[in-house]
Every structure is written in structure tokens, then in C-alpha cells.
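Saturday, quiet lab. Running sequence design on the C-alpha cells for the scaffold JK sent over.
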């Protein structure tokens, strides 16, 4: 079979510089090695769904990009710059807090639990980081925040406190709070798992709209297989700390090659 120019295996070479690049990344918690050598690139604007059994290291993968966990070995680059550290001549070179702080502002992460500030209203939850981290004025931050809250369908909830919102609304505030920082990459970690089933749709709809805008790279760690199939450019199946298989949604869901992936997908049929 002839090779498609610019396409090597599952990786589509668009000629652009990757926005995210993991090289030989391992992660251990004590004796437990949860990631066993991850090589992964994401292109600017690319939507990558990460699926796999619980405990396979998906959250850890995302948390490292958000600088919430440090890799044990290997490197992670964000937009061509080293995020964490590198190993030079066997020596671990740690990134300083200032560097991490700057790099972190390029990444947004949404968690299963929303972690909103309970004592702040919706608007302040969203303006806090642009003011404190980006140094925007109150007016500038509010202008951005109102626009983002409009985008997630909460324009009429600016003065409400988190305790008076539904789970779906809280999660949409969390999404607006991350988006307002204009990150280059967003990590969505099981963002609908803690929601009542009837609230899942409204959150997925917001994520779908953000994805359609296209600019931001997105890592979607999810158990929502239909959703992954619909919006991902590429799906990564991880198990026991390794990437077992990756490909287009059609390749992964309609034509899984490994036994491991086939049996994993059975559970969602
Ligand atoms: P997944 O998202 O695929 O469910 P995780 O990345 O959350 O997997 O976890 C992978 C493994 O690492 C699990 O066994 C989990 O218990 C363990 N783990 C995650 N974070 C920590 C931590 N801070 N300390 C110890 N073990 C951890």
C-alpha cells in the first residue's frame, strides 16, 4: 500500500509545531508506576480524547500538563518550551516556580469536581484569575468574564453563589473560569462524571461549542464514548500506564485492533 504523503501511522503531520509534546514520560507514586513511558504530541487546535480503564493514568497525564504533578522521567513541552524539567546527563533539572507559574497560564483544566470559590459569586469566580494572574483591571476582567459566562449560557447568573447553582451550572462556571484565561490547551478530566444524568447534556453542549470554535487544543479524558467519537480528531486508548492504541474515532471505535481495546469497548455497548 502506498504511503499517504505527510501521514505517518496515526500521526497526521500538518507541518505545524506541536503545542504539547510528551517524550518518554513516566510517573511513579512510591512503588506504583502509573505511567510507563508516554510519547504523545498534540497539534494546535487538535481535539484528543483519552479513554481507558479507571486507574490507567489518564488523570495523571492531564495533571502533569497542568503542572499539578511532576513527571518522574521524561519531558513535557508546551508550545516548544519545556514545561517541567529535563534530564541532562542523568541529572534532573527542575523548573523554578516562576517558570511553572508562567507556563501554567497556558493550560486550563476542568475537573470532575468544580472547585469553585464558595464565598464568591459567579462573576468573581471568573474574574479572580484574570485579575490576579494576568493583572487585568476589574473592568477588563469583567468584560471578558461576562462574555465567557454568556458563552456557557450563564449570563443571567452573574450574582449567584455556587451553592445556589445546579451541578451543571457549576461545571459551566468552571469552564468559563478556565476559558477566560485564554489558554492554548484545555484539559477536561471526566467533567460530567459527578453530574446527575439529566445535567450531562448541557455541559457536553458547551464543550462541543468550544470545540467547534476550533482554536484551542483540547485533551478530553472521558467515559462518554459517543461524545469522544463525535468531537475528537484523535482518540487515545491507554491501559496500565501505556498508550495501547490510537487513531481516528472511526479506527478506535469501529475497528479496534487490540484485544484490550475490544474488551474495553464491550462495556459501553
Ligand atoms: P485514571 O484517571 O485513568 O483513573 P489516575 O491517573 O487517576 O488514573 O490514577 C492512576 C493510578 O495512580 C491509580 O492507581 C491511582 O490510585 C494512583 N494515584 C494517582 N494519584 C496519586 C497520588 N497522588 N498518590 C498516590 N497514588 C496516586
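Result came back. Writing it out in full:
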Amino acid at each position: 500500500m502506498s504511503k499517504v504523503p505527510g501521514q505517518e501511522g496515526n500521526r497526521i503531520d500538518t507541518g505545524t509545531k506541536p503545542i504539547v509534546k510528551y517524550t518518554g514520560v513516566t510517573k511513579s507514586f512510591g512503588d506504583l508506576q502509573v505511567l510507563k513511558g508516554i510519547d504523545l504530541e498534540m497539534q494546535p487546535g487538535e481535539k484528543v480524547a483519552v479513554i481507558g480503564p479507571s486507574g490507567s493514568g489518564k488523570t495523571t497525564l492531564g495533571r502533569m500538563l497542568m503542572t499539578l504533578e511532576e513527571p518522574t522521567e521524561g519531558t513535557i513541552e508546551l508550545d516548544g518550551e519545556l514545561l517541567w524539567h529535563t534530564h541532562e546527563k542523568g541529572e534532573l533539572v527542575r523548573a523554578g516556580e516562576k517558570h511553572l507559574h508562567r507556563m501554567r497560564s497556558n493550560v486550563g483544566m476542568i475537573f470532575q469536581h468544580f472547585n469553585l470559590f464558595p464565598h464568591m459569586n459567579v462573576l468573581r469566580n471568573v474574574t479572580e484569575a484574570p485579575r490576579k494572574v494576568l493583572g487585568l483591571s476589574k473592568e477588563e476582567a469583567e468584560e471578558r468574564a461576562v462574555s465567557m459566562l454568556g458563552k456557557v449560557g450563564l449570563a443571567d447568573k452573574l450574582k449567584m453563589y455556587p451553592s445556589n447553582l445546579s451541578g451543571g451550572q457549576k461545571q459551566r462556571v468552571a469552564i468559563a473560569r478556565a476559558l477566560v484565561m485564554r489558554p492554548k490547551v484545555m484539559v477536561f478530566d471526566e467533567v460530567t462524571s459527578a453530574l446527575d444524568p439529566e445535567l450531562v447534556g448541557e455541559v457536553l453542549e458547551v464543550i462541543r461549542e468550544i470545540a467547534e470554535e476550533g482554536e484551542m487544543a483540547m485533551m478530553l479524558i472521558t467515559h462518554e464514548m459517543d461524545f469522544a467519537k463525535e468531537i475528537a480528531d484523535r482518540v487515545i486508548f491507554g491501559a496500565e500506564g501505556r498508550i495501547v492504541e490510537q487513531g481516528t474515532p472511526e479506527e478506535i471505535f469501529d475497528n479496534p485492533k487490540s484485544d484490550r481495546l475490544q474488551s474495553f469497548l464491550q462495556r459501553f455497548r
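Notes for JK: Residues 29, 34, 52, 54-60 surround adenosine-5'-diphosphate (CB under 6 Å). The first strand starts at residue 7 and ends at 8. Ask whether to fix the surface positions before the next round.
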